[in-house]
Design goal:
By secondary structure, the protein is an alpha+beta fold. The protein has helices spanning 19-24, 26-39, 51-59, 96-103, 140-145, 149-155, 164-169, 178-185, 193-198, 203-206; strands at residues 2-7, 10-15, 42-43, 137-139, 209-211. The strands form two sheets. A three-stranded mixed beta sheet has the order 1-2-3. The protein has a two-stranded antiparallel ribbon with strand order 4-5. Residues 186-202 have low confidence and may be disordered.
Amino acid sequence: MEVIPLKPGFGAELRGVTLSDVAASDAAYAAVRAAFEEHSVLVFRGQDVSDDIQLAFSRRFGPPEVTKVGSMGTGSHFVILSTFGPDGKVVPSDHRQQLRARANQLWHTDSSFKQVPALTSILSARIIPEHGGETEFVSMRLAFERLDKDAASRLENTFAWHSYAHSRSKVATGLATTEEVERAAAGMLADGLAQSRQRPRRAVSCLPCLWR
């Protein structure tokens, strides 16, 4: 396996290994996991990707989450992001599906509002536009390392709480479903006040990588 760094200290492309290799081989997984721990974001180009292959690869990193109510893919292990409607046409800009896609343009990390945050997110592009559609990444760990000492000292023991319903409200009022809001308020999906008092999370260590 060849590891090609994409940026100094952050991001790498892996060559000479496939998702299926990682799913089937302990040695391949160990090498990929080591690259993940060092570079945070890994790129696998030109892969043969199906739902089964992606899920087998994902299980190497731990038990996959079940997609929450209100998202495309509810009840499965996949969140489907698409701007196409059932008729195969792009839905209007004010369609709920478009608004949810727009929420992903905010800097974020997946599942930071859950009681157990995700270790990683594994993204596959099945249909891509000729232009645009890029995903951007930023390393919180690298950003923290580059802070001056005074700023790093001020932020060292800061904490953050993420409300799924609140972040969705930044895109459109009512974008989070009633069930999502109620579960968030109860602390089941989001870090509610009572829960956050018991389990505060350091902002940098909890959010090592953000994307949009």
